[in-house]
Amino acid sequence: MRVRKAVILAAGLGTRMLPVTKVVPKELLPVVDTPAIQLVAEEAVRSGIQEIVLVISPGKTALLEHFKPAPELERALEEREKHELLELVRGATRLASITAVEQPKPLGLGHAVLQAKEAVGAEPFAVMLPDDIFDCDPPLLKRLLEIATAKDAPTVALLRVPRADVSKYGIVAATPEEEQIYKITQMVEKPSPENAPSELAIMGRYVLPPEIFGLLENAKPGVGGEIQLTDALMDLARRRPVYGYEYCGARYDLGDRLGFVTAQVAYALKRRELADNLRSKLRSLLDAA
Predict the structure, then answer these.
(1) Architecture of 5-255 per CATH?
(2) What residues pair up with 10 in beta bridges, in sequence order?
């Protein structure tokens, strides 16, 4: 299963991060100084992806603009000999071939994926949710692509979550096949804790075949009256094996206030020029609390 394209779903309203997302797309909120959507695009490119399709809502054109050249800014930085900043600005424009399609109304994750049908065509593709930032080595998507290729099968990322939190996620029942690799037998979107088949939750990375589009086109609205990707995946699992990979590494939910703040600290501590001073500041804050 050779995958060249990734679809990044960026059409959400960002209600969990209001009021800032009233005017700033949540996907452009920074992790230290890098927009979340750029971190996700960089993960895709490090995983071997060549083309990226952004699914955006009407009016969120700033997401695509971030990946386009900014001639005036670049000229000003070059004239002032700010070469490091110039390379940072140009870096986002050189990542991959990046295009955008619109999701006219927020009708669910499955509906958002469906909007990319024409751009993807009749080939397998990756789906990435920019709310989820994974700090993994190798990149999480790369590992999923390796498994999908080895199994010649759709593959999704899994995380074991507390039973009390299962109602926030799509939850699977699965049979272990290899270390960290499961064959999925059932999927339920946001079940109650007593009805959840396990604590294994589907996270924001998927490798899917093109036939998922036909399943989404024929899907009936599910939880919340939306077209659920989980329902289409379950239909797919009835036709062919679908696998899950329980990943190792850190995950930060940037759509959650605590997850967003935690990501800032974690990524800043990875920066040599920030780490020592940040540790000192954090100790001072904790002492004063």
Answers:
(1) Alpha-Beta Complex (3.90)
(2) 56
